[in-house]
């Protein structure tokens, strides 16, 4: 299987039927349930990585996609997929399923981090209505 199946809806395998696509980062972003799980750019496929699948990418020697914008570089949590996985439809389906599962994990992480992020919660400050003449 080549990456061309991602570009032609009529050639997509069954596990990619309900996937939405839109141009992004000079390539194409692929969405499941309204969230991006894959990116195809420069003849490479990148999938969303999280705690449930990042080891698969690292053990196969893959690197994250690094987005360049205005001379700065931003590593992402999307990792390149080995060509042997891209060419094997069964393996690719497993890797895509793991990437889509990471979308749910991202939701949980965002909720936890927003609960811990002190910048988002504003605590009311109390000021004393009584002036204390002993302090300057």
Q: What secondary-structure arrangement, pairings included, does this model have?
A:
Elements: H1 4-7, E1 20-24, E2 27-32, E3 35-41, E4 44-48, H2 54-59, E5 64-69, E6 72-80, H3 83-87, H4 89-116
Antiparallel strand pairs: 1-2, 2-3, 3-4, 4-6, 5-6
What does this structure look like?
With 136 residues, this protein is an alpha+beta fold. The protein has helices at residues 4-7, 54-59, 83-87, 89-116, and strands at 20-24, 27-32, 35-41, 44-48, 64-69, 72-80. The chain has a 6-stranded antiparallel beta sheet. A hairpin with a 2-residue loop joins strand 1 (20-24) and strand 2. The longest helix has 28 residues, at 89-116. It starts with a helix and ends in a 20-residue tail after the last helix. The model has no long low-confidence stretch (mean pLDDT 78).
């Amino acid at each position: 299987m080549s990456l061309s199946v991602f570009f032609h809806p009529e050639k997509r395998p069954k596990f990619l039927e309900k996937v939405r696509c839109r141009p992004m980062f000079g390539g194409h972003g692929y969405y499941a349930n309204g969230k991006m799980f894959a990116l195809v750019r420069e003849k490479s496929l990148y999938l969303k990585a999280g705690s449930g699948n990042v080891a698969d990418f690292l053990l196969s020697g893959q690197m994250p996609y690094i987005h360049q914008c205005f001379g700065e570089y931003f590593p992402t949590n999307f990792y390149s997929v080995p060509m042997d996985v891209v060419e094997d439809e069964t393996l690719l389906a497993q890797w895509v399923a793991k990437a889509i599962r990471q979308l749910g994990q991202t939701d949980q992480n965002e909720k936890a981090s927003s609960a811990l992020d002190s910048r988002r919660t504003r605590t009311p400050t109390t000021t004393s209505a009584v002036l204390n003449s002993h302090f300057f």
